[in-house]
Amino acid sequence: MSEMKLTAAMVAKVQRTEPDEGPRPHLLQMDEADYAQWTDDLLQTLGDAPLRVFAYGSLIWKPEFDHMGQSHATLHGWHRSFCMKIERWRGTRAFPGLMMALDRGGSCKGVVYELPPHGKPAQIKRLLEREMTNKPPTNMPRIVTVEADGTEVKAMAFVSSRSGERYVGKKPLPEVAHILSRAAGHWGTGAEYLFNTVSHLEQLGIHDRNLWALQELVAQEIEGM
Fold this sequence. Notes:
By secondary structure, this protein is an alpha+beta fold. The chain has a single domain (26-224), classed as Hypothetical upf0131 protein ytfp (Roll). Helix content is 34%, strand content 30%. It has helices spanning 8-14, 32-46, 58-61, 120-131, 173-180, 190-203, 209-224; strands at 28-29, 52-55, 69-86, 97-114, 134-135, 139-148, 151-160, 184-185, 188-189. The strands form three sheets. Strands 2-4-3-6-7 form a five-stranded antiparallel β-sheet. A two-stranded antiparallel ribbon has the order 1-5. Strand 6 (139-148) and strand 7 form a beta hairpin. Helix 5 packs across helix 7 (209-224) and helix 6 packs across helix 7 (209-224). The longest helix is centred in the C-terminal third of the chain and has 16 residues, at 209-224. The mean pLDDT is 96.
């Protein structure tokens, strides 16, 4: 496999942070009751199965939870896609960014983490708070079945809702590259997000052809600035 065109030095050239304007006033925010209800529903669906989390993007390089182990895993019926608009975190209202989510169709190779057996409600709530802020959410938790080490297991994953306010569907890769190379928020840039995701996937031996083509396009965008 050839080396990535998008390098850490390129990412550094466009790296910046922007002030957080907060959510738009008309958006409803998730509260403690909402998180508790989602947590209860997920626990009921999960049943007695161990708590596992399927990671396909930033949870691979920034899991923010304790885990006992991890395995390569494949989720069928969903694929990675920069299909969600964001006006915070790695974008602003003036120049929205794009967030990667799982969209319907195809398959996705990633990592499944097994979390400790104690404190399931608190662990789930922490993940919900990380991934969900507005309601109704566009990035939704779901118990899915993944293939890991030749076995089918249940895992928690976050998938896009096509009826969600932030869902924008499939955009041409050149358009996605143009946005990611320029968008930034109080967490940093879209270019940094893409670089971290692709580089960590490659380190794990997971090659995503679309993301590989996208990082080349983002590199070209930055070179042309």
